[in-house]
UniProtKB/TrEMBL annotation:
Transmembrane segments: 60-78, 90-107, 127-144
Pfam families linked: DUF4293 (PF14126)
Biological source species: Hymenobacter daecheongensis DSM 21074
Protein name: DUF4293 family protein
Keyword terms: Membrane, Transmembrane, Transmembrane helix
Alphabetized InterPro entries for the sequence: DUF4293
Length: 158
């Protein structure tokens, strides 16, 4: 049913993945040139761009993966009558979240090369939200599996 604990986990997962769209994922500050590079879900750009700086690098793949993961989670909530489909959607969501983390890590590596290689960048809150979503997805799948086992045991008693 919709009021089960896995529905709460899936809703929180969707909120976490949608929050990735609005929070910075990674940033790097060069104190010598006073330039800051910021990675968001849609672009990798200089915060205070001067004339002659490189144009923003589009990173829409992160946004697309995050929105797809949130949409799968919301769709999964309403598939409570078909637990096997919910488990398959959970596996798909796992892959989407891992791809989001991988794409974020890739573009942070691209950003490392764009501004003073000796100074490391810092991961922001938006980078850690997919990790939270991954844990919520695993918890939701665990409770879906538990519900399926409960239904099977009741069927055996009949």
């Amino acid at each position: 049913m919709i009021q089960r604990i896995q529905s709460v986990f899936l809703l929180l997962l969707a909120l976490a993945m949608l929050s990735v769209l609005f929070l910075p994922l990674w940033s790097k500050l060069d104190p010598l040139s006073n330039q800051e590079l910021v990675l968001t879900a849609t672009k990798l750009t200089y915060a205070h761009a001067d004339a002659g700086m490189s144009v923003p690098t589009p990173t829409y793949i992160i946004a697309v993966l995050a929105v797809a993961s949130a949409a799968v989670a919301l769709f999964e909530i309403f598939q409570f009558r078909n637990r096997f489909l919910q488990l398959k959607l959970g596996i798909l969501n796992f892959l989407l979240i891992v791809a989001t983390i991988g794409a974020s890590f890739y573009f942070s590596g691209v950003g490392e090369k764009m501004l003073n290689i000796k100074i490391p960048g810092t991961f922001e809150a938006g980078f850690y939200l997919p990790t939270l979503a991954l844990m919520l997805n695993l918890l939701a799948n665990r409770f879906i599996r538990r519900d399926e086992q409960l239904v099977r045991s009741i069927d055996r008693l009949r």
